[in-house]
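Example 3.2
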Amino acid sequence: MGRNLVETVMGAVVLLIAGFFLVFAWNSSDLKPVSGYAVEARFNSIDGLSEGNDVRIGGVRIGSITGTSLDPKAFQAVVGLTIQQDVKLPTDTVAIIRSDGLLGGKYIKLVPGKSKEVLVPGGQLTKTEDVVAIEELLGRAIFLLSDEATGNN
């Protein structure tokens, strides 16, 4: 009976420590949703971009993606973003879809413009650059290499 009690206590301690580390990891990471104002951006292609991905300026997370949908008239992907309240974006800010390394996820990189006017809540980022799929880049590279090998220029 004493052995079962010790095993139960040790199991409870392990679970308590695991819970502590889980809470610590959640609080110290940037996984929490960002509260702020909503804007949207339109892209022709958003391959691999999904809700919860980061929005960054200069590598610093300043927002998150709140959702994606399709505009049935223009056949464009509409991406909803939440931006921190203290970050005021110029109206000519450019939104670019980037990849976090070869195997990393996608995020939206914002490049602020020079405009004096700021984007209002509910506004739209009109300057966007679509994602370039790695498969497309590899296809282009193989095509160029095969042209060079056959002597076609």
